[in-house]
Specification:
9% helix, 17 strands, 1 helix, mainly beta, elongated, single chain
């Protein structure tokens, strides 16, 4: 009888120990589904889902400014969102869940740093090289597209033209795709081309892009000199910096770089 009681007591102790160990293993976990959206055209809000393991005492939010090596704390909250005014800079965000003295870091670290597409050759509308340029909304990467193919109507955000037959210029323009079908250079089919707007040449490339106004973001801007950078606002509300680094009228082409802000509606562009 004593042996049976001792065995039962031992089994109960083992069960309690296992439950205790399991509780320790699932006492906390990281936030999930961390995302960033524009709160205004220069401020952001981070949102996330709570951990599946337990209820944290607080969430800690940090920010690593572009060009810096370390994260700096922004603050803490008990909510699952956090507002931030970065005062014109871009960077990466980190969210951690705090359980007493332990913290659990979210795997996703969303960023506002614009996506660079390095130098590509873009042709004038009548030249051999394709004249259309557009950004992939999923990645922010820029690519070149032919303007004589109506299948590209939902891919192109701007094109290059001299608004004349041939490609000799002497001046080229950055133009909204919807101007293509009436361009004197010809060859652009009537289709549902996007409508984009562009500012005059920018003085400071790393400053926030100018606030959107339809009388300032125009459907075309002349490339008066190179290098020259302009702001672009796409039809669906994204902002990008477009920089023309070289113009070769003899070959009918320009060299272009771009920085695309993946957060829709945000005009921060520091890179």
């Amino acid at each position: 009888m004593n042996r049976v009681m001792a065995a039962c007591a031992f089994a109960a102790l083992v069960a309690v120990t296992l439950v205790s160990v399991q509780c320790d293993l699932v006492s906390g976990g990281p936030p999930t589904e961390v995302q960033i959206v524009a709160d205004s055209d220069t401020t952001v809000v981070l949102v996330w889902a709570p951990p599946a393991e337990g209820t944290p005492s607080a969430y800690l939010v940090s920010f690593k400014e572009v060009g810096k090596q370390a994260y700096a704390p922004l603050g803490q909250t008990e909510d699952t969102m956090f507002f931030h005014n970065p005062h014109g800079v871009t960077g990466h965000y980190k969210v951690m869940a705090q359980f007493g003295g332990e913290t659990y870091e979210a795997l996703t670290k969303p960023s506002t740093v614009p996506i660079l597409t390095d130098t590509l050759f873009l042709g004038e509308l009548n030249a051999a090289t394709s004249a259309g340029y557009g950004w992939r909304r999923e990645t922010g990467a820029g690519a070149v597209f032919a303007m004589d193919d109506r299948l590209n109507e939902k891919e192109v955000d701007f094109y290059v033209t001299d608004f004349n037959l041939g490609f000799s210029g002497p001046k080229y323009w950055i133009a909204s795709p919807d101007l293509g079908p009436t361009d004197p250079g010809g060859g652009v089919p009537v289709a549902g081309w996007r409508v984009s707007g562009f500012t005059p040449a920018l003085v400071y490339e790393d400053a926030p892009l100018p606030a959107y106004a339809p009388n300032y973001y125009l459907e075309k801007q002349r490339i008066d000199t190179v290098p020259m950078a302009v702001a672009c606002r796409t039809e669906d509300g994204y902002f990008a910096l477009v920089k023309f680094t070289r113009q070769e009228t003899g070959l009918g082409r320009v060299q272009v770089k771009s920085w695309f802000q993946l957060v829709k509606g945000l005009r921060l562009i520091k890179h």
